[in-house]
Design goal:
It contains two helices and four strands, in the order E-H-E-E-H-E. Strand 2 and strand 3 form a beta hairpin.
Length: about 70
């Protein structure tokens, strides 16, 4: 497992935090450590979840993510 920190743009409230947390929790190979307005810290299994896949999962919820 590898820790990855993301900057997330477009989050404005606790609903946003919940949406991102829920989506990441459903992503194979990802364990959510912390999601706050504007950021997320996760653990990922590189064999199961690429950075692009994680960024796409966040984008599916309407936000823009990039590795910090």
């Amino acid at each position: 497992m590898e820790q990855v920190k993301f900057k997330i743009e477009g989050m404005t409230c606790h609903h946003c935090v919940h949406a991102v947390t829920s989506r990441l929790a459903k992503t194979p190979g990802v364990k959510v450590e912390d999601v706050q307005i504007g950021s997320a810290t996760i653990m990922r299994d590189p064999a199961l979840a690429t950075i692009d896949q994680i960024e796409e999962a966040i984008a599916d919820e309407g936000y823009t993510a990039s590795v910090r």
